[in-house]
């Protein structure tokens, strides 16, 4: 039995023990991270008008979105109409139901890579189509969402076939059993662990998603989450196949309505005959004590903390800190620089209807990689969480709802990017003393002024961003300055049908 399947079976047994026999629950699909209506809900959460149903963990379920929207105090609130509109949008009728949908349209891009701050590849316009099938049956939910996306073969970060003119991918494909005190999951969908609006450090939706198993056990005040995945096999210098595995778990506590704290670990294991052995699948174990943050020969561990604090009605503070390695013993000239990553974020209301969000994030020069290239936090060369190290970024955004369907997001960003890349070879001991903790080589600086728009109006879905970039030391060439436009657009029209399963 494959390792993720064994994790799923164990999690199902655990949830079965925790669920009273008479507590049959109605399942709910997860709200996709690319849903164009989600930014409007995130706007309300950032303002403090609506509670965060799952602090620093995305996605959450449609039912969770409806729950917090229904609980919001809309008496005299300027956002009352928007709250009520989103509640109606996300409210799926109870009972055993089916849903079918199809969307078609196009994508346009100035560079084919989805990340606007690290553009790569050609520009172009491509058609796009997707199809969704979903069913809820008591505590069970099933979702399948394939997409025809001709741009994929030209994307340098696409892990699939590149010899096709029409490539398909599974945007979502999962089954979930949901109970009173937990749920189990098997399949694929986008995830992000960290403050909303920025790529999470341990897990993110930067890369194209892959099949994984996971479970979620707990109540509102204490929750344990776990995800396990088999990574792409690689070949060593002798041509032997190296098996790779990824595991993450997160324990969060909410001592009060205003404060949420979490402790998490992620692990990458690799070896020619490696299996996903039980001690690394144990979500209650503290793995960092076993291998000193991944510098040993028994897997690479990253250890971190999250926090969210509603300091006042007008201010929410969030933070995420990851320790990839701390050299607390002096090893002389061969000492490697410390490896870490962090994010600090703040948000709140701006007047009666608008919102604001700002964040600063940083990743050290050697973050996310280690001595064994097979144990770096990557899959097919792309980051499992963050995809870029040796950088820092400061962004400030405003969120401006227009009616109850659209959200405009003006943005100012400054990015400093060193020459250290997540898939570079790890330096040797002789080179270690010459590696700075932050900013290797010539630092590229990008100044971005942009606006984004997202929303759904009838059959129309729209997600777009457009910005001007002023780049200093472009491509890490001292003194080279470039001004360019960066834009991404996806627009589709859709139809859907649903009904009761009999």
The radius of gyration computed from the alpha-carbon positions, rounded to a whole number of angstroms, is 23 Å
Please give the share of residues in helix.
10-25%
Shape: globular
Outline the biggest β-sheet: 18 strands, antiparallel, barrel
Strand content: over 45%
Q: Taking all residues together, what is the mean pLDDT?
A: 90
Number of strands: 23
- The run of helices and strands is HHEHHEEEEEEEEEEEHHEEEEEEEEHEEE
**pLDDT < 50 stretches:** 17-23, 289-296
Description:
With about 500 residues, the chain is mostly beta strands. It has a domain of about 70 residues. It has 7 helices and 23 strands. The strands form 3 sheets. The protein has an 18-stranded antiparallel β-barrel. A two-stranded antiparallel sheet has the order 1-7. Helix 3 runs antiparallel to helix 4.
Quick summary:
This protein is mainly β and 502 residues long.
Q: Could you list some keywords that capture this structure?
A:
502 residues, mainly beta, 18-stranded antiparallel β-barrel, 7 helices, 12% helix, globular
Topology (elements, then pairings):
Elements: H1 3-18, H2 38-47, E1 57-58, H3 62-71, H4 80-90, E2 97-109, E3 124-137, E4 140-148, E5 168-179, E6 182-188, E7 192-193, E8 212-218, E9 222-230, E10 234-235, E11 241-256, E12 259-271, H5 278-281, H6 288-291, E13 300-312, E14 315-325, E15 339-350, E16 354-363, E17 378-379, E18 382-383, E19 391-402, E20 406-417, H7 429-432, E21 444-457, E22 460-472, E23 481-500
Antiparallel strand pairs: 1-7, 2-3, 2-23, 3-4, 4-5, 5-6, 6-8, 8-9, 9-11, 10-11, 11-12, 12-13, 13-14, 14-15, 15-16, 16-19, 17-18, 19-20, 20-21, 21-22, 22-23
């Amino acid at each position: 039995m494959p390792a993720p399947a064994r994790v799923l079976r164990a999690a199902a047994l655990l949830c079965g023990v925790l669920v009273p026999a008479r507590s049959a629950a109605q399942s709910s699909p997860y709200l996709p991270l690319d849903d164009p209506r989600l930014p409007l809900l995130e706007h309300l959460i950032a303002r403090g008008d609506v509670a965060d149903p799952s602090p620093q963990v995305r996605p959450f379920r449609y039912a969770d979105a409806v729950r917090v929207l229904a609980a919001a105090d809309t008496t005299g609130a300027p956002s009352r109409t928007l709250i009520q509109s989103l509640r109606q949008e996300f409210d799926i009728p109870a009972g055993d139901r089916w849903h079918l949908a199809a969307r078609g349209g196009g994508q346009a891009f100035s560079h084919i890579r989805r990340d606007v701050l690290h553009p790569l590849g050609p520009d172009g316009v491509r058609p796009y189509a997707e199809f969704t099938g979903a069913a809820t049956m008591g505590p069970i939910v099933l979702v399948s969402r394939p997409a025809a996306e001709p741009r994929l073969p030209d994307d340098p970060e696409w892990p699939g076939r590149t010899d096709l003119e029409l490539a398909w991918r599974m945007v979502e494909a999962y089954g979930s059993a949901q109970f009173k005190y937990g749920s189990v999951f098997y399949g694929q969908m986008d995830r992000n662990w960290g403050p909303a609006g920025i790529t999470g450090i341990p897990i993110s939706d930067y890369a194209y998603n892959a099949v994984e198993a996971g479970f979620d056990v707990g109540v509102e005040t204490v929750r344990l989450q776990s995800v396990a995945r088999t990574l792409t096999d690689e070949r060593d210098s002798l041509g032997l196949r190296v098996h790779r595995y990824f595991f993450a778990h997160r324990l969060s506590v909410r001592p009060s309505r205003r404060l949420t704290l979490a402790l998490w670990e992620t692990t990458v294991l690799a070896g020619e005959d490696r299996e996903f052995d039980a001690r690394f699948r144990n979500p209650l174990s503290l793995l960092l004590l076993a291998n000193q943050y991944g510098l040993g020969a028994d897997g690479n561990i990253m250890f971190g903390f999250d926090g969210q604090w509603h300091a006042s009605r007008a201010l929410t503070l969030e933070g995420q800190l990851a320790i990839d390695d701390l050299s607390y013993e002096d090893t002389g000239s061969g000492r490697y620089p410390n490896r870490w990553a962090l994010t600090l974020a703040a948000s709140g209301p701006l007047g009666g209807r608008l919102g604001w969000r700002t964040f600063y994030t940083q990743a050290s020069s050697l973050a996310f990689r280690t001595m064994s290239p097979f144990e770096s936090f990557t899959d097919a060369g792309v980051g499992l969480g963050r995809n870029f190290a040796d950088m820092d970024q400061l962004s400030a955004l405003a969120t401006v709802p227009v009616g109850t369907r659209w959200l405009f997001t003006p943005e100012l960003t400054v990015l400093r990017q060193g020459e250290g890349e997540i898939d570079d070879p790890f330096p040797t001991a002789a080179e270690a003393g010459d590696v700075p903790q932050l900013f290797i080589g010539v630092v590229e600086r990008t100044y971005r002024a942009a606006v984004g728009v997202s929303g759904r109006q009838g059959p129309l879905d729209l997600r777009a961003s457009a910005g001007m970039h002023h780049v200093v030391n472009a491509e890490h060439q001292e003194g080279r300055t470039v001004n360019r436009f960066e834009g991404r657009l996806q627009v589709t029209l859709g139809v859907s049908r649903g009904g009761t399963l009999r």
